[in-house]
Predict the 3D structure of the following.
Amino acid sequence: MTITCNGEPVAADAATLADLLAHRLGDTRPHGVAVAVNEEVVPRDAWASYRLADGDVVEVVTAVQGG
Amino acid sequence: MTTPLLIAGVELSSRLFLGTGGLPRTSLVAPVLEAARPGLVTVSIRRTSSLAEGGLLAALRAAGVRLLPNTAGCLSAREAVLTAELAREALGTDWVKLEVIGDERSLLPDAVELLDAAEELVRRGFVVLPYTTDDPVLARRLVDAGCAAVMPLGSPIGSGLGVLNPHAIAAVRAAVDVPVVLDAGVGTASDAALAMELGCDAVLAATAVTRADDPVAMAAALRLAVEAGRLAHGAGRVPRRAEARASSPLLGLIS
């Protein structure tokens, strides 16, 4: 299965969003982070049950310095 | 002292809002916040690949400041709405500084996309503070769309040119009945004071502080300037005159 995460293709063996976050950020429920799949925000409480599908476009974001 | 500022029914502790963009290091966040004591602090939402970037958020949370996520860099209403939704999820606030720029060179607002995004975000329950041009007509349209404040630019983002068209800013202030926040262009304390003297309800500064030689000193200077400008606005300045008018008595002069 290949998904796109933050603009890059990723050969994902992650079944759920929580798995993907654990793989990329080392935490299944990282603080101050939000996730969208295919341009829809997935609420934090749904990360553990949200099943990724081939071709999904995932964005993982956080707050950074900004004006 | 000046009266407190209310936006969307929330009382803010200061009329100076601070942007964090451009600070050379995260260790400056705490002393700059201490010096500025801002009513709102803006952050941006960006892709992350490491939780090490979370140091900023921890510093802001520790300072207890109210966060205002922005949609900086968005070029369309669609991008801005998704960014605002992500910010709401990440930070737990439905307040958003709405930025939809027309191009990356001028960084000027795209009026059409901005209004579209504002309408959609208001529909989705956001408290929308749009970064806009110094156009009173557009400001009124944004308020009609349900925006809680308007944030006209004094001059282009990061330019430090100050308030290039004071008459336009005064016209925006006169055109709307929500708070007006001078956003963008502040270069130093006198720019912030002028904006407040023109009747703005608050000033947002980022670059002026974060890229100053001494960000902590400039943060304190802007805090004082905003307060001074607000007091001067309320005090009512004397009219400008083309000719001199003696302030000392003319009677009793020795001859």
Summary: Chain A has a mean pLDDT of 91. The beta strands of chain A are 2-5, 8-11, 33-37, 40-42, 57-65.
